[in-house]
Amino acid sequence: MKIGIPKERREDERRAAASPETVKRYKGMGLEPVVEAGAGAGAAVADQVYEQAGASVADEAGVWDSEIVLKVQRPTEAEMGRLKQGQILIGMLDPYNSKDQVEAYAKAGVSSFALELLPRTTRAQAMDVLSSQANLAGYKALIDAMAEYTRVLPMMMTAAGTVTPAKVFIVGAGVAGLQAIATARRMGAVVTATDVRPAAREETESLGAKFVGFVPTDAATKGGYARPLTPEAQAEQARMVAEHLKTQDIVVTTAQIPGRKAPRIITADMVKSMKPGAVVLDMAAESGGNVEGSKPGKTVTVGGVKLIGARNLPARIAPATTVLYAKNLMNFVQLLVDAKTNELKIDTGDELIKGTLLTTGGAVVHDAFKPAA
Ligand code: NAD
Question: Would you state the pLDDT for residue 234?
Fold first, then answer.
């Protein structure tokens, strides 16, 4: 059974859905890995390295002629024409922003899995693409913001005097935010953070940062995600953020609500009140923006404050994120292939399969996307 790894064709995508290590493991599982020529170029993996690990290298048509296809991002329009009946497609398919495409997978007779929908359970941790990618993205966000900051992060004591440490504020202390906190702490900054989930306070403090703001009791779902704030809670948060921002040097915002536009937390007036030379990096710029005026992929200066709109941060450190993403996918593929017979076995009773399976047998089957009865 062939398992194909096409070259990613969406703009700015540099990751690949397999690494030499996972290619080797697929071979060990009795599968035949087929990698498209150049698929690893953005992640610093040459075709020969995939070959040495046991893959064959093919052209685009050869790769899509596989029983299982592994992707980073959802297929392009041209790639949609290459899907074939009975094929298995696995990747970050972004179904909330591509509902028509979900229907097209069903029409094409493909069993499609969107790995962002994986339930955040202990068993799922090794397959959790959101966590592995957000973790490294949170690190890269702080590094990018630091690169635009023209003062220094740590306190520096010199014969000529002392330079005070930078004040870093992280909005949203989830997976990415916690890594941004840890990175800023390693650089010696004075770090504060806020979130709306009750668990975030302790996690922030365990990294040596100070939690600021209040935590509404009803702002987390059972699945551990944030809910949109009530208008009252939003106003309370806005008051706190507006006051705190006036003294901050670097701000990284990471707030997201799954399946919805990112919450707007920093307004243009708040940016205006910040110190000249301050830097704000909006990690949610592509999903609506936590910061008014941020533009994905662009850095704009507003009244002396630099606003960086992040765009696909994981792709900017593709050699590192590819290793983790590929491993997440391999752990997921193991769920689908019977270890004894090496045959496909999709157990729709398994909560990890049920949680991610968008389409199969010609129909949309995921509860969040199937047509209303
Ligand atoms: P996310 O990317 O959906 O959101 C990022 C952060 O923004 C979250 O912490 C969220 O609470 C916060 N946020 C949302 N609205 C906000 C607002 N208005 N103001 C301030 N902050 C706001 O979240 P994530 O990083 O994917 O993490 C989601 C949850 O999943 C967390 O509880 C995390 O601990 C949990 N998790 C569990 C596992 C596991 O057990 N397998 C793995 C990873 C994550």
Answer: 87
Please give the average per-residue pLDDT across 165-170, as a whole number. Answer: 98
pLDDT digits (tens, 9 = 90+) for 237-274: 899 999 999 999 999 999 998 888 999 999 999 999 99
State the chain's mean pLDDT as an integer. 95
Residue nearest to atom 13 of ligand 1 (CA): 255
For ligand 1, atom 37, name the residue with the nearest CA.
Answer: 120
State if pTM tops 0.85: yes
Catalytic residue list contains 125: yes
Closest CA to 15 of 38, 49, 37, 42: 42
**Closest ligand 1 atom to Cα of 229:** 18
Q: CB of 118 within 8 A of CB of 92?
A: no
Comparing CA positions, the residue from 26, 132, 142 lying closest to residue 72 is 132
Residue with CA at minimum distance from ligand 1 atom 27: 174
* Ligand 1 atom closest to the CA of 176, numbered from 1: 25
Nearest partner of 267 among 229, 230, 232, 305, judged by Cα? 305
Cα 228 to its chain centre, rounded Å, is 20
